[in-house]
Specification:
With 446 residues, the chain is α/β, with parallel strands linked by helices. It has helices at 32-45, 57-72, 87-93, 111-128, 143-149, 153-169, 184-200, 217-232, 251-262, 289-305, 332-344, 367-378, 395-398, 429-445; strands spanning 5-8, 11-14, 20-24, 49-53, 79-83, 99-102, 131-137, 175-180, 208-209, 239-240, 270-276, 279-286, 311-319, 325-327, 353-356, 385-389, 404-410, 413-418, 421-428. The protein contains 14 helices and 19 strands.
Length: 446
């Protein structure tokens, strides 16, 4: 898809520009030293754009200081302010950052007032050369939109188009758009619908791709690669973020792989493929475990997601960290990768499905360690969808698909959700996983 080229600081997105790799700090923005240090480390890892959360006016000033310190150190990476629930914060921070991310679902609770506030934001952005990301998430669609279209990819497309028309009405084109979901099918369908609708409407805004709350480890990498690669392979997508519940520096190599692959700088290690009906035999000569995982997800994720194939068998080898050639034929590792790919493409569930945010400055507990413990203790709950979310601000909305949710409140307390309803609030962290498991067990016996 041909898009216009927009500018965020010294980075161009869209047009004939290479795919831009970005990430997000998980430090508290008010901790200026930690945030600056993490930004430096992320730039060294290859981040071309860095987002930081701005949950209050106090963090507006913190982010200003962070930006000034980075510029004084000779670091020119564009900074993106992540804003939810406060149009006033978005307007205030737009004066000095390179890009502002707003969420149409929670920019302002009153739609007419939202349009007024958005016009003010656009004026500030025009005056200061600031870009905007219209960043909608599946779990935070506004009530007005869901009443009209349900909680669907169509609703996501319609919500974003409404805001893109507002951009056009305000003669503002320095815009990137995203429609993220943790469900790879929903995410891919929403972007496809948007690409088609923009083309019909004569719009060509660049798109930011990502599978939100993808989790961690192999599963998070495979899930992200399936969703993002399905779109990049169709020419949809201009900038990407791989959201992992890990150190944000770990996101960069995965995103860079995807950027390089779809900018035609590297090729898959797939050496042969035989397809009979809807079954494929894939043979790899992979230079590493990581490359095998990512190559496999990109080579076959879209075909499984679109139901062109029903199964894939792995053959060949990869080279392990010790330089040893590991055969794949009928191996446990091959079966594990097949299971993970089928789960990521939502074709077969062999374990629970986890939704876990990557954490940011709003997270008030050890998200990574908690997520690992929740996974360990719920691994037997095949097919159940369990969310582990960093904060009460976005957690309940973003875990829209979950059967159960563990949501941090701050101050050592947790809320436990069944679906969209909180069953328990203010549970001490030390008891929260036990209480979650008790509730799941009670529900199963009813």
């Amino acid at each position: 898809m041909e898009t216009i080229q927009i500018q965020a600081g010294n980075v161009r997105i869209g047009g004939d520009s290479p795919i831009v790799v970005q990430t997000m700090c998980n430090t508290h923005t008010s901790d200026i030293e930690a945030s600056v240090n993490q930004c430096v480390r992320l730039v060294e890892a290859g981040a071309q754009m860095i987002r930081l959360t701005v949950p209050s006016m106090a963090q507006v000033e913190s982010l200003r200081v962070i930006r000034n310190m980075l510029r004084e150190a000779g670091i020119s990476v564009p900074l993106v302010a992540d804003v939810h629930f406060s149009s006033e914060i978005a307007i205030a921070v737009a004066e000095f950052v390179e890009k502002v991310r707003i969420n149409p679902g929670n920019f302002h609770k009153d739609h007419e007032k939202a349009k007024e506030q958005f016009a003010k934001l656009v004026k500030v952005c025009k005056d200061h050369g600031t870009a905007i990301r219209i960043g909608l998430n599946h779990g935070s669609l506004g009530e007005r939109i869901t009443n009209l279209y349900g909680n669907t990819p169509l609703a996501m497309k319609e919500a974003v188009m409404e805001w893109l028309r507002m951009c056009t009405e305000n003669d503002f084109k320095n815009v990137v758009v995203s429609l993220k979901a943790s469900n790879t099918y929903v995410m891919v369908e929403a972007y496809r619908l948007l690409a088609e609708e923009m083309k019909k409407s004569g719009m060509s805004f660049p798109m930011h791709l990502g599978v939100t709350e993808a989790g961690n480890g192999d599963a998070g990498r495979i899930k992200s690669a399936v969703g993002i690669s399905a779109l990049l392979s169709e020419g949809i997508g201009d900038t990407i973020r791989v959201s992992l519940t890990e150190d944000p520096a770990n996101e960069i190599p995965v995103a860079q792989y995807l950027a390089d692959r779809y900018d035609h700088k590297l090729h898959s290690s797939l050496s042969a493929v035989t397809i009979k009906g809807k079954s494929a035999l894939a043979t790899y000569a992979a230079p590493s475990r990581e490359r095998l995982i990512l190559d496999f997800a990109c080579d076959f994720g879209k075909r499984l997601l679109d139901k062109e194939l029903d199964e894939v068998v792995l053959d060949g080898y990869y080279i392990d960290d010790n330089g040893v050639e590991r055969n794949l034929a009928a191996s446990e590792f091959a079966e594990y990768l097949i299971d993970e790919l089928m789960q990521a493409a939502r074709r077969r569930f062999y374990r629970p499905e986890y939704i876990a945010c990557p954490g940011c400055g709003r997270t008030m507990y050890n998200l990574e360690a908690t997520f690992e413990e929740v996974k360990r203790r719920t691994s037997h709950l095949k097919g159940m969808v369990i969310a582990v979310m960093g904060c009460i601000v976005n957690g309940p909305g973003e875990m829209a698909d979950a059967d159960w949710g563990y949501v941090g409140e701050g101050n050592g307390k947790v809320s436990i959700y069944k679906g969209k309803e909180p069953l328990l609030r203010h549970v001490p962290e030390s008891e929260a996983i036990d209480r979650l498991l008790e509730l799941i067990e009670e529900s199963a016996t009813r």
